[in-house]
Sequence to fold (324 residues):
Amino acid sequence: MQVSVVGCGVTGLTTAVALRDAGHDAHIWAAELPFDTVSVVAGAIWAPSQLEPRTRVPGWALHSRTVFARLADVDATGVAPLRYVDLHRQAPAPTWGEDTPWVQRAPAEAVPVGYEAALVVDGFAIDPPLYLRWMIERFEASGGTITLGKLGPLDDGTPLPGDAVVNCAGLGARELVRDRSMFPIRGQTVAVTKSGPFDGTADESDPTRISYVYPRRTQLVLGGTRDTNDDNPEPDPTIATRILADAVVLEPGLAAASVIEHRVGFRPGRPEVRLEADRLPDHRLLVHNYGHGGAGYIMSWGCAAEVVSIIDASAANPSPINGC
Ligand SMILES: Cc1cc2nc3c(=O)[nH]c(=O)nc-3n(C[C@H](O)[C@H](O)[C@H](O)COP(=O)(O)OP(=O)(O)OC[C@H]3O[C@@H](n4cnc5c(N)ncnc54)[C@H](O)[C@@H]3O)c2cc1C
Fold:
């Protein structure tokens, strides 16, 4: 099928690449390239996410993990294996990740003083600038094109060509499909110099004061915040000072690190991910794939695979609405 994908963040790019890999003629339409979206601000790691809907999220996340494991064999992708330690001041409820070989509870003697539990995750670190560049090159090398420009609401009629449209607009879905359940979740980070190999570490025991260290290839990303009541696009110096102080508690070696950059991004929040088939006013297939909150990378390949199966089913049987 000929498919127009709206959005060029990690969700749109991955969906468009997966559609082309499956033999569809997919092209991207986007207001911004990924280097100007929240996708470049992300940490970005693969670890079990507690996003909703819980019935579908583990399948999407595990599919993504399989793909990241393959991509980690290719240096240019910017994907690397990551040991990630998730510290808890109170023992957490069991997560779906503990049903897999990729998440283990550390034995009591290995849990740092002051904590009740530690989950050790066999995950992946994705370096967004490298990865997103590599994904664009992969997409364009296969014949995909990216057309820049902001689109109006799809129910006003759309100039997008093709047999189907996939909506990967992230927070832009508020306007593109008038989804009022979307909300921005502000994240502020500090990038600092990296002096050697680092595990990922996090202490999110207090949701109002989360702290994490995520390694990228040549720097560390320190976080963070997850705030739904703050729309300030500028880094807040008070928050940055708190992030740096908390990171040194997690990793004392960071006291000597130098600040490279302060960053702010707005995660596309929604009560649950929207991945379902719909129709445009002209009756062409519209597939929604947005609202991935703080887990756009974790969900990316799994959600893209489900979009492909909806498009495949529609190609095989064009009349009914296929999928979920
Ligand atoms: C501090 C921080 C840390 C994070 N850490 C992680 C992590 O460790 N792991 C993880 O998986 N995720 C993480 N995330 C979340 C992740 O960044 C997001 O879930 C993901 O980037 C969302 O990608 P997206 O492609 O859906 O949206 P976006 O990146 O926002 O892309 C949306 C695209 O749609 C386009 N668009 C929107 N409206 C229109 C329109 N009307 N017309 C045309 N184009 C339109 C935009 O131009 C853009 O190209 C983090 C986020 C933050 C802020």
